[in-house]
Amino acid sequence: MHLPVFQLINYILILIVLIFFIRLMWDVFFDNTYQPAEWKYALKQGKIPKILKKMEQHFPDKVRFFNWWFQVDRLRREKIPGDFAEVGVYQGESAKILHHLDSDRIFHLFDTFSGFPSKDLVGETGAAATYTSKNFADTSVHKVLDYIRGNDNIKVYPGYFPDTSNPIVDSRFALVNLDVDLYLPTKAALDFFYPRLSPGGVILIHDYNHQWQGVINAVNALMEKIPESLVLIPDQDGTVMIIRDK
Ligand SMILES: C[S@@+](CC[C@H](N)C(=O)[O-])C[C@H]1O[C@@H](n2cnc3c(N)ncnc32)[C@H](O)[C@@H]1O
């Protein structure tokens, strides 16, 4: 018996949809998604706010998410003083998570909110060499604040970092999230925030992998001058952390 081609294609498509559906149901009913035991326990105890639960479900890099959660929890437990800051906000995805992990902390957000400054792109290699000033330009302060749905602890500084850092020169920091992809802003942010990091405080740098040589160079240059070790996180894009010695 010969099936007409279109019927065969139909059967294949139905089979593919069925496989996806079974996989989804398997995950839903048998909890086949990655969640650390501590998170499951906190969920059972009702300690995770609804908004965080939702963000965890939708955030694709589970290791990155739970690393933030562990770090913020540690800062709270160890009573590490200081504000939170992020350089490289774009549309606010990581900023929203960090704010809702501890909304009592003052949180300083730095971005041009209009894409990469052209002067920072000069001399970049690897993935960054394909960037133009149009990348990450589809955002605005208004959109980000709307998306985060946070409180008055969020302070936003639109413009070129480090030129925008003046209002926080006298602040101290417990957590700094750097996600700017390029050498110059990564170096500027490390030079600015490391001396202002509280003992026990943490700087997290995203994209420390072979595609982002500028980030690697900026981090390695700082590591040569400081006593701390670089902690590598096995998340999707290679976050590294510097925890300031106590
Ligand atoms: C990869 S995106 C950040 C992604 C974001 N953390 C998220 O969760 O979606 C990089 C951002 O760094 C910003 N950026 C890069 N260099 C900058 C500089 N010198 N000053 C301000 N912002 C900069 C870009 O505008 C862009 O929005």
Description:
Strand 6 and strand 7 form a beta hairpin. The chain is 41% helix and 15% strand. The radius of gyration is 21 Å and the shape is globular. It contains 9 helices and 7 strands. The protein has 2 domains: 1-32; 37-243, Vaccinia Virus protein VP39 (Rossmann fold), CATH 3.40.50.150. The chain is α/β, with parallel strands linked by helices. A 7-stranded mixed β-sheet has the order 3-2-1-4-5-7-6, with helices on both faces. The protein has helices spanning 5-30, 37-44, 50-58, 62-77, 93-101, 118-121, 141-148, 183-193, 213-223; strands at residues 83-87, 107-111, 154-158, 173-178, 197-205, 231-232, 240-243. The structure holds S-adenosylmethionine. The site of S-adenosylmethionine has 21 residues, from helix 5 and strand 2.
Summed up, the helix count is: 9
Query: Uncertain spans, ≥5 residues at pLDDT below 50?
Result: none
- Radius of gyration over alpha carbons? 21 Å
* Helicity, as a percent range: 40-55%
Mean pLDDT: 95
Number of strands: 7
Kindly report the name of the CATH homologous superfamily of the largest domain: Vaccinia Virus protein VP39
Main beta sheet strand tally, sense and closure: 7 strands, mixed
Strand order of the largest sheet: 3-2-1-4-5-7-6
Counted up, domains total: 2
Topology as H/E string?
HHHHEHEHHEEHEHEE
Query: Approximately what portion of the residues adopt beta-strand conformation?
Result: 5-15%
Q: Give the second-level CATH assignment, the architecture of the largest domain.
A: 3-Layer(aba) Sandwich
Structural class by helix and strand composition = alpha/beta
User: How far apart, in Å, are the first and last alpha carbons?
Assistant: 76 Å
